[in-house]
UniProtKB/TrEMBL annotation, chain A:
Residue stretches making up the Coatomer subunit gamma C-terminal domain: 760-835
Source organism per UniProt: Astatotilapia calliptera (Eastern happy)
The protein's role, per its UniProt record: The coatomer is a cytosolic protein complex that binds to dilysine motifs and reversibly associates with Golgi non-clathrin-coated vesicles, which further mediate biosynthetic protein transport from the ER, via the Golgi up to the trans Golgi network. Coatomer complex is required for budding from Golgi membranes, and is essential for the retrograde Golgi-to-ER transport of dilysine-tagged proteins.
Pfam family, one: Adaptin_N
Domain Coatomer gamma subunit appendage Ig-like subdomain, first and last residues per copy: 612-758
Compartments where located: Cytoplasm; Golgi apparatus membrane; Cytoplasmic vesicle, COPI-coated vesicle membrane
GO MF: structural molecule activity
Residue ranges of the region described as Disordered: 1-21, 848-890
Name of protein: Coatomer subunit gamma
PANTHER family, per the entry: COATOMER SUBUNIT GAMMA (PTHR10261), COATOMER SUBUNIT GAMMA-2 (PTHR10261:SF0)
UniProtKB/TrEMBL annotation, chain B:
Protein name: Coatomer subunit zeta
Subunit architecture: Oligomeric complex that consists of at least the alpha, beta, beta', gamma, delta, epsilon and zeta subunits.
Organism classification: Eukaryota, Metazoa, Chordata, Craniata, Vertebrata
Gene3D superfamilies membership: 3.30.450.60
Organism: Astatotilapia calliptera
Keyword Transcription: no
CDD domains xrefs: Zeta-COP (cd14829)
């Protein structure tokens, strides 16, 4: 039938694709023979194939022409040719979205689905469900129920899978088929078993009790399908995770027993589930690791890949557990599949000793150009982790990275390298100059604006403090001459920092800035003019405030405040202090070292946690007029994890008030709670102003209630306070199955744990990139020095950690990391205090004396900026406050 | 108190996707220039437009056609593949998916196709029996759910027979014909 094309194709010599030069209009023209009598099955079949092929190639069909072809196709149901009928089903599915009135084939399909020909029944069900909508579903419900329990496996499977697809559309109808699905689950056919399990879980997944029962049943009875086993393992590990079940739970035993299943797929699924469990001990991991080790020598590439990828994950948390596999991993280094080789090497880098690093690095570099960008990123991340582990190896790594930087690669890859070099520079002061030199070279020819600006920013920060700052000026100024606007602007800012820090470079920097003032771009000119004027003043304080340490407000907050300001015209100038502060970025967040799904979505500036809270609180009328949200604490648990009600509290600090947000969850399915409030009894002169109740708390749906407290403004020393908390509510008993509550209810209360407000709640972290400048900016006029004893602290690390936690201030210049083998340390902290119109900025210089021992005195030097402004009084009271800091070890 | 809060945060970022039957994200067959012969995408959020799909297929092809390595990881997806003469078969799943499940789908697809093509797994034969291949894919995966993974079952359900006149006979005749021609010419010379 297609052979008539063959000759022509051979002549044209353009491959042998008979579908290559298909024209949509010609095919639709041909489709007219569908109307001929008698039907010619072979020709019609061929035309349907062409239509589906065209649709598959992405050819666009207009609604009219599609509908026309569809209606012509319906006539083909008169033929009894099997393949032709099957192709009609396919056409119906492909055209369901582009043609109109597809439901006219409903009766034909219903006939096939209930007919005698078993070959038609399954596919007919699937085609029918594809074109059925909610209103028509009721009409075929009876047939679907019968089909689910049909003894022909393909019919039952088709009905189950189609039901699963329709759950999204009409959950309520499909839910009624649960008994049929239950019956299908005990079928002898392995695929029917699998599909029934999938549908049952999907219908019950929100009912934890039902899922538990289902798991119990199937884990005991045993299933035949390996797919169903994998599904059960996933459900079990999810349930373990949610219920925080210990590893002595029967669910864990089930997963572990699957390690001895005879099917590799199930064994691997179980091993992977165990590896991914949080808080897994080395002993629990061991059996999983040993099956993965066996897989490493499998002849199947997919199995080797799966095994080494999972071992790589284990190595991130438990490197020692993987050491036993080192020999097998070594063998995989030469694997012809480069993905496997890369994963093997990066795993070895995590588990191996310092001496093997050089050899492994050499091996990676031999094939790094052959692997995909995703895996190159994995390599870079492994190197980054290695540098933290073996700081002495940084020169080898740096060399390797700089070579990789010169190779071709996409943005994600380059960004990973740049991030890695930056982190090495920050960790190892001695690598700073080589690192900066490599980066300088990179931006000479860098197509990614984001990276160029990032590197320029880093050069501005680190460059001026190197022994020879002048050599960076050339690289920076080249950018001003050669690059796009955003990069030029970043270069101008970097130049200004050199001028501000190095007096001998100032004249040349001023000349260069003068030139930038002729730039064609507004932003570049503005920046140049601004920096020029600041630098000419030659005042350290100005430099610190406007060049080194920029704005510390939250950007989305600033946007919102400015928008608000433009909406309400007023004579007053915009007050920067009404803008909430930026929350310091969490630096300790570890990046996952695994081939993670690189997001395809464009990155957008996600509002911080605090911005989200600000928005939520502003929506509550009682809390308007409190001013900008100053700080939101981490959630504090006020109940044990396994109690009837779970309550946690987030403390929101405002200028003169605090709002306590209680997130409550009701874990009793036979109760509905209403009018939930938390009553607070303060120990100090704190005044409870208002309670906003949570109107209703149904089973397992979290809700929030709030309590507003006014902070005492007459006594600034009252910074800490303990509240005893009681939750009060109206209980209405209800039916656990339907959730229908009784008409009457009764009042009840529940005692929560005490809640403490500490110093840290009044201080917001502020990151000062250049601490020295900030310190000088405040000046020694407002300095206070105190000595404290740290009672039961044993190590320097512990002392530093405790001080940071107690004060809730931001460590600057990476001074929170105590170098090894030191017995004294200087810690720089910066923060802003609550209240007093935006709050004074408080840098703190903490110094531990040499010969650190438990209980030795600890000097704290504090400077505040506030006194230089109009309210000297507040400043002194803040100083008083600071004097009350006492370091009783917790 | 501290420990519970740490555990809480871990729970809010589940490492697992919701357990579900939706295993396969996409399946496609390409020719030896990386052009699409057949392709199905089952996750509407993954490469929604035809242009994105074809770019993805092109990328996958470029990274995989040189070496028959069976498995690759690209654009955050696990891809298992297999080639035969001038055809490339691909099955795509999420990064968290069980690689062996994807393999069983790929093997089933390949074996079933090979059977209906009477072991001639090459482009021309595939295109001549395109309807059979469409039906095979439809029986193996339905909307991303593995419907069947046993080639015998698939073949039984599809019940498709390749053309009566197998291509091999025809090509033998062609070879004979051309041989005759050549001999004729050599004698005439």
């Amino acid at each position: 039938m297609i052979k008539k094309f063959d000759k022509k194709d051979e002549e044209s010599g353009s491959g042998s694709n008979p579908f290559q030069h298909l024209e949509k209009s010609a095919v639709l023209q041909e489709a007219r023979i569908f109307n001929e009598t008698p039907i010619n099955p072979r020709r019609c079949l061929h035309i349907l194939t062409k239509i589906i092929y065209l649709l598959n190639q992405g050819e666009h069909f207009g609604t009219t022409e599609a509908t026309e072809a569809f209606f012509a196709m319906t006539r083909l149901f008169q033929s009894n040719d099997q393949t032709l009928r099957r192709m009609c089903y396919l056409t119906i599915k492909e055209m369901a979205n582009i043609s109109e009135d597809v439901i006219i084939v409903t009766s034909s399909l219903t006939k096939d689905m209930t007919g005698k020909e078993d070959v038609y029944r399954g596919p007919a069900i699937r085609a029918l469900c594809r074109i059925t909508d909610t209103t028509m579903l009721q009409a075929i419900e009876r047939y679907m129920k019968q089909a689910i329990v049909d003894k022909v496996p393909s019919v039952s499977s088709s009905a189950l899978v189609s039901s699963l697809h329709m759950v999204k559309m009409s959950y309520d109808v499909v839910k009624r088929w649960v008994n049929e699905a239950q019956e299908a689950a005990s079928s002898d056919n392995i695929m029917v078993q699998y599909h029934a399990l999938g549908l049952l879980y999907h219908l019950r997944k929100n009912d934890r009790l039902a899922v538990t029962k289902m798991l119990n049943k199937f884990t005991k009875s045993g299933l035949k399908s390996p797919f169903a086993y994998c599904m059960l393992i996933r459900i079990a590990s999810k349930l373990l995770d949610e219920t925080e079940g210990g590893h002595d739970s029967p669910l864990f035993d089930f997963i572990e027993s699957c390690l001895r299943n005879k099917n590799e797929m199930v064994v691997y699924e179980a091993a992977s589930a165990i590896v991914h469990m949080p808080n897994c001990t080395a002993r629990e991991l061991a059996p999983a690791v040993s099956v993965l080790q066996l897989f490493c020598s499998s002849p199947k590439a997919a199995l080797r890949y799966a095994a080494v990828r999972t071992l790589n994950k284990v190595a991130m948390k438990h490197p020692s557990a993987v050491t036993a596999c080192n020999l097998d991993l070594e063998n995989l280094i030469t694997d012809s599949n480069r993905s496997i080789a890369t994963l093997a090497i990066t795993t070895l880098l995590k588990t191996g000793s310092e001496s093997s690093v050089d050899r492994l690095m050499k091996q990676i570099s031999s094939f790094v150009s052959e692997i995909s960008d995703e895996f190159k990123v994995v390599v870079v991340q492994a190197i980054s982790a290695l540098c933290q582990k073996y700081p002495r190896k940084h020169s080898v790594m740096m060399n390797f990275l700089s070579n990789m930087l010169r190779d071709d690669g996409g943005f994600e890859y380059k960004r990973a390298i740049v991030d890695c070099i930056i982190s090495i520079i920050e960790e190892n002061p001695e690598s700073k100059e080589t690192g900066l030199a490599h980066l300088c070279e990179f931006i000479e020819d860098c197509e990614h604006t984001v990276l160029a600006t990032k590197i320029l920013h880093l050069m501005g920060k680190e460059g001026p403090r190197t022994p020879q700052p002048s050599k960076y000026i050339r690289f920076i100024f080249n950018r001003v001459v050669l690059e796009s606007e955003a990069v030029r602007a970043a270069a101008v800012s970097a130049l200004a920092k050199f001028g501000a820090q190095n007096d001998d470079l100032l004249p040349s920097v001023l000349v260069l800035l003068q030139r930038c003032m002729m730039d064609s771009d507004d932003e570049v000119r503005d920046r140049a003019t601004f920096y020029m004027n600041v630098l000419q003043q030659k005042q350290k304080a100005l430099n610190a405030a406007y060049i080194f340490n920029g704005l510390s407000v939250s950007i989305p907050g600033l946007e919102k405040s400015l928008h608000q300001y433009t909406l309400e015209p007023s004579e007053k100038p915009f007050d920067m202090k009404t803008v909430p502060l930026a929350t310091a970025p969490i630096t300790e967040q570890k990046t996952e070292i695994a081939p993670v799904a690189t997001s395809k979505l464009p990155e957008k500036l996600a509002p911080s946690r605090q911005d989200i809270y600000q928005e939520q609180l502003a929506a509550i009328p009682e809390f308007q007029g409190l001013g900008p949200l100053f700080k939101s604490s981490e959630p504090v648990q006020l109940t044990e994890a396994e109690t009837e009600y779970v309550v946690r509290c987030i403390k929101h600090t405002f200028a003169g008030h605090m709002v306590f947000q209680f997130d409550c969850t009701n874990t009793l399915n036979d109760q509905l709670l209403q009018k939930v409030v938390v009553q607070m009894e303060p120990s100090e002169a704190y005044e409870v102003v208002h309670c906003v109740p949570a109107p209703s708390l149904p089973y397992s749906q979290p809700g929030s209630c709030y309590t507003l407290i006014r902070l005492p403004d007459d006594d600034p020393t009252a910074v800490s306070c303990t509240f005893s908390c009681t939750m009060k509510y109206l209980v209405r008993d209800c039916d656990p199955n339907t959730g229908e509550p009784d008409d009457d209810g009764y009042d009840d209360e529940y005692v929560l744990e005490d809640l403490e407000v500490t110093v840290a709640d009044h201080i917001q972290k502020v990151l000062k990139p250049n601490f020295g400048a900030a310190w000088e900016e405040v000046g020694d006029e407002f300095e206070k020095e105190e000595t404290f004893a740290l009672a039961s602290v044993r190590t320097l690390d512990e002392a530093v950690g405790n001080i940071i936690n107690f004060l809730g201030m931001q460590p600057c210049e990476r001074s929170d990391k105590v170098p090894e083998n030191k017995n004294s340390h200087v810690l720089f902290l910066a923060g802003e205090c609550r209240g007093s119109s935006g709050g004074p900025f408080v840098p703190l210089w903490g110094e531990t004396p040499t010969g650190f021992k438990s209980g030795t005195p600890h000097h704290l030097t504090l400077r505040t900026e506030e006194a230089s402004r109009m309210r000297g009084e507040t400043s002194s009271s803040n100083l008083k406050k600071s004097r009350r800091f006492s370091f009783q070890a917790p | 108190m501290d420990q519970t809060s740490v555990r809480r945060t871990e729970i809010t970022h589940p490492q697992y996707e919701e357990p579900s039957l939706y295993t396969v994200k996409a399946v496609f067959i390409l020719d030896n220039d990386g052009n699409r012969l057949l392709s199905k995408y089952y996750d509407p959020e993954l490469y929604p437009s035809m242009k994105e799909q074809k770019t993805f297929e092109r990328n996958v092809f470029n990274k995989t056609h040189k070496a028959d390595n069976e498995i690759a990881f690209l654009e955050g997806m696990t891809i298992v593949y297999k080639s035969s003469i001038d055809l490339f078969f691909y099955v795509v799943g999420s990064a968290q998916e069980n690689e062996l499940m994807l393999m069983s789908v790929l093997n089933c697809l390949f074996d079933s196709t090979s059977h209906i093509l009477r072991k001639n797994v090459e482009q021309r034969c595939l295109l001549e029996n395109m309807e059979g291949v469409f039906l095979v894919v439809d029986e193996i995966i339905d909307g991303g759910v593995i419907l069947e993974s046993d080639p015998q079952q698939v073949l039984q359900k599809v019940n498709y027979r390749a053309d009566e006149n197998p291509l091999t006979e025809q090509s033998v005749a062609q070879v004979l014909q051309s041989a005759k021609e050549q001999i004729k010419w050599s004698i005439l010379k």
